[in-house]
């Protein structure tokens, strides 16, 4: 969830009253926000760096508020305040209307076809007659940063540029040119650079270096010019110094370049609507018509929705309500979104509890039912259950067991963060052996088991993803002597529990086998009805040592799905 | 009682080393080197010097000369030792005692003495107390003639050599039981690997959503892709993402089938719920209640309470005209079986449910409301493309299995519970799982 930091006192001033921390927390709960942290700039610096660096920082109380990920209209103080004031009936839901300039034509942004190769879309707007204070200015910059981090996916999908309209003149051109042909004085620099030089310059800039990759290798870079050839910006990297905004700026030209047009519009709408309160009026979006979804009267529902900034009125036809969706609410895409807002305004905890009427009889998933029954009795036989990781290293199921990883049929992860997540396990044995290794101080013998899934690649028809789970039962006995007879006894007991008789053919039998996991001459394969279901034996000393163990060990692993 | 040691005996007869040093120094003095040749010389010299009985003239020719510095001396050490010899050791002060003990002239011996008298069971013959009944005693009846040693009831019994169930699995068994008691059917979740299509796209989660990133999700390099999907359904999913339809505006972006084909380790068991609901929609609709408790995978940063693998508990109800009130009702029934009766609901956001509610319960110990789960009504954009009837609503909720287990068993570090670094002693000692106490 995105977090917005606001100065508490500024927030209360804008809300028109003070709250105790508990009262504000409760308000957040009802509206769907979370008051995550109450801190100050000083505390934050202390925490992240150290106390001495925090010495000169501000003590002013900051509220860190978590907002839902799809509410871009709540990412700044202005938006939060507006939402809460309308919710509490302190403010009328605003209507945003596009306004024409007092004199002359609206500004134009011309997009040329060259941009298609790198960053095809752009939208723009003008905020007229605005008055900035230091706080409003900071909030404006902060909102751009928040949008960049969230919906803009770190500037890769959308990038925002804001400019002082009075330092420049339209029409504006958005085009793309080879980097060597772009030359301008970027923000906070005193001389001109070509785009190629800027790439090198910003490679060491802690803030900007993360965005260079978005355009670096492209044959052309995006660039916006005014009618005099002055560069406004080179998205998504940096704006020009010429058009930078200050506290004195009265008219702001906002441009959003993007690879996704819908998102660009959402970003632009958000910026414009949030800060329109400091100037005049912005614009309107579409209209939903839905039937009243509640047992409440239509009038009440209309009132509830209006409290959520969704201006509603009755159409007069049956119980229909016409709902106006403002540009701030890009999250409303279906009537169900409106229903949620009505419920929030009503108060979730005011809704009457009911119960679904239908009668259903439960069924257990057969494989899980079998597993549940079996694990009780294996524990009754004196073994302790463990729960190990499904992901492991290639060595765990390959080299350490004396097997080639390519022959194990293991599914491989493409983006593991460490070696512990390279493959999905193909056998439960490594997990059990690692458990013993991590519990060496426990008294002997150690008798452990696990009944759980392994993953095996499977190209058969019907296995759509190309791999399937296989439910296995695995047990180990670790002691001063190998205890093969104990593991064998456990296997016999398990067969007894599964109702399989010790009979060659229709029941089960074991016969000698060879396997790199087991000591030669001390390995047997288990057959049920002529088919192999698993193996048991004394572990090979190489396997024991590779798992950092020192005592003899016997193990059993079998597939339990054939017994369903 | 004090005893003279061998050395002490010698001194009481001949005098202390320092006294003998004093005695043997003539008026004209004695060369230190000469004195040192005598057996009592070294120790005696040091002691006589500290008693200030003698002095050394270091300037004389031929080496340091020792002279008497007093006329007469009293050999205290010898006197004390003689006292001890004559039985007057009580007169010795502590300080003097430890001095002499240090010089190994005295040793202290403790002698304990007891008064013994005849007790009530005194006899001149020996009888042995029995510890246990034996078969012979029972058969012959001669247990009546034996005395039995009383049991020590303060000690513990013998620790039994038994097997144990894993705490997380014990909690899972209880949750499974709760769902079955409520009439919920268990879903088949034995597939860790899932396609992005079922895990994300069919749930109306857009393709550029952060949760589908490399750093949140595990992608598979082998097997990398799923190619087989129900094609009509896939087209409807594509449409609802790109243009909308089914009453929705959609997300208005370019939906790519290549993204949907990518295999991942499932990030939630809701992927299975999607498969089940799709299957349900292909036949005549009947109301259902489904549940699952199984492993899911997240490629996130790990810490004391988060691992890459954990277990998700999920409940789903599909029926005609279900409401938010019904969801709250089901949640109340479910949580009551966990002993939780005080619930509050908070508006939340999930890409695939609308409305969404976070579920909070009141923790008496911490005296505050804590989150115990997440819930919501599945979006029409998810259900309608599957072919479910328009008046059917599907409500669902979920929580993790690890969190209530860690709270129940008082575990702070998740690695002590799940994985090979498990604390086996904790597994041995864990009580039965009773969720409602």
Automatic annotation (TrEMBL), chain A:
B5 domain residues: 263-353
Segment forming the signal sequence: none
Record-listed E.C. numbers: 6.1.1.20
Coiled coil: none
Alphabetical list of InterPro entries matching this protein: aa-tRNA-synth_II/BPL/LPL, B3/B4_tRNA-bd, DNA-bd_dom_put_sf, Phe-tRNA-ligase_IIc_bsu, Phe-tRNA_synthase-like_B3/B4, PheRS_beta_core, PhetRS_B1, tRNA_synthase_B5-dom
Alphabetically ordered keywords of this record: Aminoacyl-tRNA synthetase, ATP-binding, Cytoplasm, Ligase, Magnesium, Metal-binding, Nucleotide-binding, Protein biosynthesis
Enzyme category, top tier: ligase
Cofactor(s), by name: Mg(2+)
Top-rank taxon: Eukaryota
A GO BP entry: phenylalanyl-tRNA aminoacylation
Pfam families on file: B3_4, B5, PhetRS_B1, tRNA_synthFbeta
Record-level Gene Ontology MF annotations: ATP binding; magnesium ion binding; phenylalanine-tRNA ligase activity; RNA binding
Localization per Swiss-Prot or TrEMBL: Cytoplasm
GO cellular component, as recorded: phenylalanine-tRNA ligase complex
PANTHER family reported in the protein's UniProt record: PHENYLALANINE--TRNA LIGASE BETA SUBUNIT, PHENYLALANYL-TRNA SYNTHETASE BETA CHAIN AND LEUCINE-RICH REPEAT-CONTAINING PROTEIN 47
Family from the record: Belongs to the phenylalanyl-tRNA synthetase beta subunit family. Type 2 subfamily.
Protein name (Swiss-Prot/TrEMBL): Phenylalanine--tRNA ligase beta subunit
UniProtKB/TrEMBL annotation, chain B:
Main location: cytoplasm
Lineage: superkingdom: Eukaryota
EC number: 6.1.1.20
Single GO MF descriptor: ATP binding
Compartment(s) where it occurs, according to its Swiss-Prot or TrEMBL record: Cytoplasm
Any single GO BP term: phenylalanyl-tRNA aminoacylation
One GO CC term, this protein: cytosol
Keyword Nucleotide-binding assigned: yes
Aminoacyl-tRNA synthetase in keyword set: yes
Keywords: Aminoacyl-tRNA synthetase, ATP-binding, Coiled coil, Cytoplasm, Ligase, Magnesium, Metal-binding, Nucleotide-binding, Protein biosynthesis
Parts forming coiled coils: 78-108
Domain Aminoacyl-transfer RNA synthetases class-II family profile positions: 170-431
Enzymatic class: ligase
PANTHER family: PHENYLALANINE--TRNA LIGASE ALPHA SUBUNIT, PHENYLALANYL-TRNA SYNTHETASE
Protein family according to the UniProt entry: Belongs to the class-II aminoacyl-tRNA synthetase family. Phe-tRNA synthetase alpha subunit type 2 subfamily.
NCBIfam families listed in its UniProt record: pheS (TIGR00468), PRK04172.1 (NF003210)
Protein name per UniProt: phenylalanine--tRNA ligase
The species this protein was found in: Gouania willdenowi
